[in-house]
Amino acid sequence: MLPVIALHLSDFPEGFELIYAGDTEPPAESTLLADPAYRGGYSVTVSNESSDFPTGELVDQIVLLYSRPVTRERLAEVFTENYPELSTWPLTTLEDPGIGDASIAYHFTYPDTTLSGYTIAFGRKDVYQILTTMTGDGTADYDFLKGIAEKALAKIP
Please, are residues 72 and 104 in contact by the beta-carbon 8 Å criterion? Predict the structure, then answer.
């Protein structure tokens, strides 16, 4: 089920290339695998970085299945579990994007660099998703990410 509801290259504008699609491997320090409600995960990473566009946009999607419904509080925990390093960077909480049954959003900046981006975590029923976009020159596009999140939401039955 998870690969079917994950984003596909055709969901992105022309110029994006598939970097990875497959089972999610939680970070070693994550307690995700010990959570009895966790049922599995799948992730997709795409980018439009090229020699013509060296500061291209990287988009990462994580789809997680739990045996409990989505809540804003649980989304924040799942974000931290899946992005332990990113969750320690300076995060600005953004207005709820209103995607799915519950959603949260952040803007982040890697300290002392121009690397920055956005994360939207959302879900419907027992399907949790985290979408992150980042660029090396600080031009990550939040509206682009929201549009991709809407496409991802439409794939959840």
Answer: yes
CA distance 54 to 137: 10
Give 10-residue mean pLDDT values along the chain (157 residues): 90 93 74 79 89 74 93 91 81 95 93 86 96 87 96 95
Q: Which of 67, 69, 61 is nearest to 133 (CA)?
A: 61
Please give the single-letter amino acid code of residue 107. Answer: H
64 phi, psi to nearest 5 deg: -125, 140
Contact status, residue 43 vs residue 60, Cβ threshold 8 Å? yes
Query: For 3, phi and psi rounded to 5 degrees?
Result: -60, -30
Q: Distance (Å, rounded) from C-alpha 127 to C-alpha 124?
A: 5
| Token digits of residue 39 | 């049922």
Q: Which CATH class is domain 2-154?
A: alpha beta
Q: Give the per-residue pLDDT at 30.
A: 63
Domain coordinates in residue numbering, the chain: 2-154
